[in-house]
Every structure is written in C-alpha cells, then in structure tokens.
Amino acid sequence: MKIRNFGKRFMALAMAAVTAFSLAACGGSSSRDGAQAGGQTQGQAPAAGQPGEKIVNVGVTNTLGTLNPLLMDGGEVNKYATGLMFLPLVELDADLNFEGMLADSITAEDTNNFLVHINPEATWSDGQPVTADDVLYTALKLTSPVIGNTAMMYYAFEGVGDDGFTEQGADHIEGIVKVDDATVRFTTKEPMALATFQNSYARYLMPLPKHVIEGFSDEELTSNEWFNHPDVVSGPFMVTDYDQNHYISYTANENYWKGAPKIDKLNIRIVEGSQLYAGLSSGEIDVAQQTMSAFPVEDYESVEALENVEAVYGDPVTNQSVFIRTQNIPDARVRQAMLCTIDRQQILEQLLKGHGEVVDGFLSSISPYFDETITPVSYDPDRAKSLLEEAGWDSSQTLKFYINSGDSTFVNAAAIMAAQWAAVGINVQIQTVDFATLMDVATKGEFDVLAVQYTYAPVDPYADVAWLLGGEGSWTGYTSPEVEEALAQIPLVNDTEGTKELYSIIDHKVQEDVPMFSAYVISSLGAVNKRLTGVTPTVYGFFNHVEQWDVAE
C-alpha cells in the first residue's frame, strides 16, 4: 500500500517530534563552556550586556545540534534557534492556526499543487528582497546528495528520488518551480492535504539568502563558518556566539522587516531540567517554554510559588503512548484487558498532579480533529478478568515492557501499571533502557509492550498515524481495512469536518483493537519572569512575535 510507504518515509520527521535528534553541528565554539543556571558554573558564560541593554534569557533542556537550515532535522531547539535568524515559510500560532512568517499565504491549487506566496515586504537584513529564487535555492540544496539531509523528506515532490535526493549537481527540481518573483509552486507525486504540506514542509523550510552564499559548493555548505555567524538574515536576531551544549547568544537585527526587536540581546541557556527552578528563582533564566524546557514534575509546585514568576501550563500535547506488538499479543481481547486494567486517571492525578488528560487513540483535546464523543475506556479490572478468561490467556507467560529510563515520571507510572496488570494475571517484566536503546528495540520490534512520549501534531497527525498503524514493519505491526481506507482518504479531504470524521473512524478502531493506547497526555509547565512584557510561554507560536518582547523599566 502507498500509505504504508508514505508513513514509513515520514518516520524521520515523526521521530523528531518524539525527541530532538542531533545532526553534527556546523562548527561552533564548543571549547567555550557557558554558565549553567542555578549557580553551577561550567566555564565562560554568554557575554554580559552593556549598561542599559535589555537582555532576555530563555532556559531549555535539550542541546543544540545545528544552526544550519540545510542540516535541520526537525528537533525543536534546532528549529526554533535557527528560525530566530532564518524565518520559516509559516509557523503555527498559539491557537494552532498557520501564520505566515516569510510567506504571506499558502494555497492549494489541487491535491498535488501548492502555491507559496512570499510576503512582498519580506527583506534580508542587507535590504535585498526575499524572493522565489531564495526558496528554490534552499529547496535544491535540501535535496543535494552531497549535503545529505534525509530528515526533510523531499522525496514527496516531483523530480526528487525516493531517497529524498536529486542527481548530484542538479540545478533545478521539476516539482518546485518559480511562478514569479514572489510565488513558488510545489508539486507532489501523490495527493497531500494542505495541512500536511504546511506542517511537514513549510514550517521547516527556512530560506537562505542565495545572493550571499550561492558561491559556496555543496561541501562548503555543510561546514562553512558563515552558518555559525551569518551576517545576512531574514529573522529578528543574529547569532554572536554559541556553545552547542551550553548556550546560544543573539543580538537584535535592527533591520528586521517586521520591526526592530525591543530587546537588545537574547540568550538561550541549555540546562538540566533540575536547574530550571533555581534559574527562574535567581533571575538567571527569564522564561521557559513547555516543549523545549522539561521541568521535573516534583518542581511544579515550587515554580508556581515563585513570586517573580508566572507559571503557565501548556495545552495537552505530549502523549505518553504505549505500543503493543500485535504479532506477540494477537488477541484483541487481551489487549483490551490490558487497557481497562489501568487506572489512568489515578496515575494522572498522582504523578502529574492532574496536569494533563486521559484520552483514547492518538489525538488530544486541542486537535481540531479530536472526537469528544469517544469516551476513554474506564478502569474495570473485573471486565479485564472476563476478557482474559474468554481469550484463554496463559497467565504463566511474561511480557517484556520497555520504557525510557530518562522519563522518571513514567518509570513510576510503569510500576503502577505492572502492579495493576499483575492483579488480573498479566505478568510483565519492565525493561528500563536509555532512549537510544528504546528506539533500537522499537525499530527491530523486539518487545511485547513499549512506551514513549510521542507528540502527534494536532493539526496534522497523518504521518505518525499512518506509520504506527502501517502493518508489518511498523512498531505495532497492526493494520485493518477500515483504518487503511480512512487513511487513504485523508490526503484527499481538505476540510476540517471531513478530516475529523476520518480520524474518528481510526480512533474508534484503535480503541476497539488496542494496538496502542495513551497512558496520559501531558500539559507541560512553562514559566516567565514578571519583568517581561509581551512574552507568554505557549506550546506553539512562542517565538512568532519575539520582536515584540520587552523588559519592563
């Protein structure tokens, strides 16, 4: 089925939503260590500001992989840190609407052709206009086999090979063409929903200034020092210094075409999650966003109690998903029993202090495709015992349950789940492994049950769902005719209600057959110092209007 192939090839970006994979940084100043928040100094910190300068420090808990848009892998810190210099075509706002960044708008001519309309006011910091040629140049380099970016999935477009690359030395892409100086047409090989094009491509295409770097060879584009300190940008800030493990320092682009930033300097400080509270308390960190900054749950109440800080819980986005290898547990009644044995609401209240929700299927309540009529399966151990008896379950067997050692909250949740399963005769052996090992086990299918935090893009979960329900080769190994038919229709439907009906079919079927279930969906904590104005930590759209951030006098 084409759907399965499409889903598998989408895996690179889907996994970027699970965690921020890192490609090799394009140089960097890794010999200069920055200061960690909370008083734990590890060498030279970002340079101090001059008297009267307005400086904002953003705390994040993932290291930086690259500042080069051509090496982008979709990891959040990489994407947003780079996007401060090179705007993407569009970005999601806090309300999950696509907001034009460099693009004025994106429209669908049909299910295979999409027009990107560049904002006529968009200019580079040297005063030159941003044009269709910049978009074409950047897309061509993203498909260069010499540069070798496999994460951006350009195989979807006409003229690009199934490996995601054009021929070495190619000077154009058949499916990405200039209509006029401000318009580019993207043509896909197979039907694609407009939301998929915007979410999976337009959000990650950060045009580069062709007139500045077109003289670089493809080899130079992967390592040239220019990308560490670009002197021509389209965004609100320019990097002045960085250490990929500790900090990134920016200065304002005074020629930003949307208006010069109100703050003079911005620092992204890379810290341990346990250091976020101390940094906010001391003022070393001004703001922490929900998806780039992972607070330990045990620090939530302490952050809420800080007088100088406003705590902001984000929308429920990150799904603690539990995947069942259906070839190993082929009877749906057993999988149903596994679900109704778990008191998910109790786990949510005890371990996450109620900051989240319980749902069935892939979608959380903030998705426009969420079906509020699907009532989550309730805790019912008596029903579980009946289902197991009907299925002839052999209670002497032991299931291997793989979990991420780095997720302390779910390590505790898994222990509760194992105890509740044992109470009805399902014995599991918890295998606690690091994330890299967990992904290796998942890819090889060497598990009975496996859990990982997974963010299904609320506006476009298609890639993840198609992959995870893609039959042989997917994590679950599950598929069904009903699911395949619904998935086949999604790229052909470009209205919200029609798409919602299709995802409802899928989630109903997943609730019935249980190839996966959600243990809980997390509403993560963000925080902002009250001295800042115009700054609200949000799951999406956090940096969209960073030029409006300010520091109160």
UniProtKB/TrEMBL annotation:
Could you say which protein family the record assigns here? Belongs to the bacterial solute-binding protein 5 family.
Question: What start and end residues bound the annotated signal peptide?
Answer: 1-24
Q: What is the lineage of its organism?
A: Bacteria, Bacillati, Bacillota, Clostridia, Lachnospirales
Per UniProt, residues of the Solute-binding protein family domain are: 98-473
An example Gene Ontology biological process = peptide transport
Question: What is the protein name for this chain?
Answer: ABC transporter substrate-binding protein
What is the species listed in this Swiss-Prot or TrEMBL entry? Candidatus Enterocloster faecavium
Regions that span the bilayer:
none
This protein's UniProt keywords: Signal, Transport
Question: Got a GO cellular component term for this one?
Answer: periplasmic space
The Swiss-Prot or TrEMBL record annotates one GO molecular function as:
peptide transmembrane transporter activity
